Protein: Probable malate:quinone oxidoreductase
Amino acid sequence: MSKIQNKTDVILIGAGAMSATLGALLKELAPEWEVKVFEKLASAGEESSNEWNNAGTGHAALCELNYTSEKSDGSIDISKAIKINEQFQLSRQFWSYLVNSNLIRNPQDFIMPIPHMSFVQGEKNVAFLKKRFEALTDNPLFQGMEYSDDPDKLMEWIPLIMEGRTSNEPIAATKIDSGTDVNFGALTRMLFEHLKSRDVEINYKHSVEDIKRTGDGLWEVKVHDLELGKTTYHTAKFVFIGGGGGSLPLLQKTGIPESKHIGGFPVSGLFMVCNNPEVVEQHHAKVYGKAKVGAPPMSVPHLDTRYIDNKKTLLFGPFAGFSPKFLKTGSNFDLISSVKPNNVITMLAAGVKEMALTKYLIQQVLLSNEKRMEELREFIPNAQSKDWKIVAAGQRVQVIKDTEAGKGTLQFGTEVVSAADGSIAALLGASPGASTAVHVMLEVLEKCFPEYMMEWEQKIKEMIPSYGVSLAENPEFFEEIHSSTAQTLGLNVKELAYN
Ligand SMILES: Cc1cc2nc3c(=O)[nH]c(=O)nc-3n(C[C@H](O)[C@H](O)[C@H](O)COP(=O)(O)OP(=O)(O)OC[C@H]3O[C@@H](n4cnc5c(N)ncnc54)[C@H](O)[C@@H]3O)c2cc1C
Structure:
């Protein structure tokens, strides 16, 4: 039977925050290109990007202690924190550009100001936090950060966390008011609405089953229409695999050399949600703790004020766990089906090396609700079980690959994997996540469209003025950008306080 092929310029697989961002960038840089999207679920932003599936932190390293490690000489390495903060500034600028150009509206529906805090207990952790504060405080990107180990001050900042605390253990916190809560689900939906208005063809309930190279150098994508039960074939010059956890199996189908010797390690998550408005009202911050010894960075506990469905709520977690699924809506066979002859050694090596992590994740899955309440009580001593319920969060698939550190090394960041000729790219990994989507999608453009970058540079700088510039080294420029994006996105805390 002959196949009918539908030709297009660009295919985006998956309707999450990453495809949304790439689509929005491309529509500004090459508006004449024809773009198609295939998403297997019924609407946009339903997997990891959904507001209930992630923690909604605008990651700028203001409070996440895993981005500032202690060196062997006792000093604090802030290079990663600077990098992530700069990447978040790129997102703020692109979102501001979209708002200023009326391409998306009502930024308060997807971004809200909220203090970002780090909170630690015990002498060693207090000493670490103080050193971290001292290392960051003079850097322009972290201006306005405060430190305190005075219980009265902490009571003022975080009454819910301080109330009922009886231990004499030293405690300390840092606080910075320029943090944000980002509703990535709402943002993703807004971006897809915008793409629709720009004639992007968005096909929901369409699952991509296969990707092959054609004789004329295009990519052919086999798509199954889940409603009509029909299969169609589409070709494109460029394909972006933005399938979240579903990206690895699709990348493997491309057969490109860059897809070999890579595996995925799925980590599930659970949040505790507070549904008592009296408790919710007593807290106004995202408060990150320190990961327990042996726990992976993605399981750092935090107590967050969230703005979801125009309502303030509290989320605690995530509790990491083990599930063989690559997507929340995935299959129990995802992990086993991803083991191929070319990555079996990589996967086995990771299995041996990460035995302790696997054991930790399985133990986490088996925690009783009362045990989870005990962990919550380390943050809120007076927490009552009746006020909290458990919700399942999204899946993260951590990349496993062979590195200088050895075969089968688990990676905690994101990786853009692309063909040498730039005709196809996939995004793997989950951290720092959607906060840095603009930076990651600019990387996709640089890797896949080097021949257009000169032509596009001026437009990129119009949208993202700090593109290619270090803000940490240009404090005045940072100040200008930070205050103009705060103005556009409605993040000026003082102004809000007067409203
Ligand atoms: C527990 C948790 C907490 C997190 N907290 C934060 C946070 O605080 N801040 C932050 O910035 N990031 C956070 N993240 C990460 C963030 O959620 C992700 O980086 C981001 O949502 C990834 O977007 P995406 O578009 O790549 O994937 P997704 O949003 O998962 O979208 C992928 C889409 O592809 C579709 N798809 C998959 N396979 C196919 C196929 N074969 N055919 C068609 N469609 C397909 C899926 O249905 C899905 O809609 C967190 C993630 C988790 C799980």
User: Anything to note?
Assistant: The longest strand covers residues 262-274.
